[in-house]
């Protein structure tokens, strides 16, 4: 994830994916805490890939996205990565 995870913010659906992926969506964290983790992780693990207009995640956004679990994580991730290469 180092020097890569921020690339998800560059493609449509990528921001949402980072919350909806099972490791995030199922984490034993409150929505506010998960937002804090994501807001810390992105600039610290993948700083070169954070868009200038990045808006921090909010607890409300995380709560909404967590209610939309991913059915096929691998397919969604593959489609997002393919968009990154274009």
Tell me briefly what this model is:
The protein is an all-alpha fold. It is built from 5 helices and no strands.
Structural class: mainly alpha
Order of helices and strands: HHHHH
Largest sheet: none
Name the helicity range.
40-55%
Q: Note poorly predicted spans.
A: none
| Overall average residue pLDDT | 94
Can you count the beta strands? 0
Distance linking N and C termini: 20 Å
Strand content: under 5%
From the alpha carbons, calculate the radius of gyration and give it in angstroms: 12 Å
CA-based shape: globular
The DSSP helix count reads 5
Task: From the structure above, extract its key features.
single chain, mainly alpha, 5 helices
List the helices and strands and how they pair.
Blueprint: H1 14-20, H2 22-25, H3 31-45, H4 59-66, H5 73-84
Helix pairs in contact: 3-4
Description:
This protein is mostly helical and 86 residues long. The chain has helices at residues 14-20, 22-25, 31-45, 59-66, 73-84. Helix 3 packs across helix 4 (59-66). The longest helix is centred in the middle third of the chain and has 15 residues, at 31-45. It is globular.
């Amino acid at each position: 994830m180092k020097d890569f995870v921020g690339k998800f913010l560059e493609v449509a659906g990528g921001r949402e994916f980072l919350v909806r992926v099972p490791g995030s969506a199922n984490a034993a964290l409150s929505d506010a805490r998960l937002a804090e983790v994501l807001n810390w992780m992105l600039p610290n693990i993948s700083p070169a890939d954070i868009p200038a207009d990045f808006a921090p995640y909010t607890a409300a956004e995380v709560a909404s996205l967590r209610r939309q679990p991913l059915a096929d994580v691998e397919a969604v991730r593959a489609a997002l990565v393919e968009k990154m290469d274009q």
